[in-house]
Amino acid sequence: MKVACNCGIEMKNARTGMVWLELKEDGTPYQGWSCDKMECPDCGNVVYRLANSPMLHCAEKGFDANLHAAREVGILVEDVP
Ligand SMILES: [Zn+2]
Is the pTM of this model over 0.90? Predict the structure, then answer.
């Protein structure tokens, strides 16, 4: 699937296998989504393309540990796109 930037350029896959962290309304971690980082080669705009379903859920055992591990290796995306 192609992702077009606002400037009309096709965005390139900058990094795969990242984890996008979805927060609850109160700001606590809710779900982790597998995602790819897409970057516009022209203007540098970045978006994250999420998988169809979350792979981590806060009710699951080990959720905090998984988030921590993802953060440690630099693949956790905590800023909301
Ligand atoms: Zn662009």
Answer: no
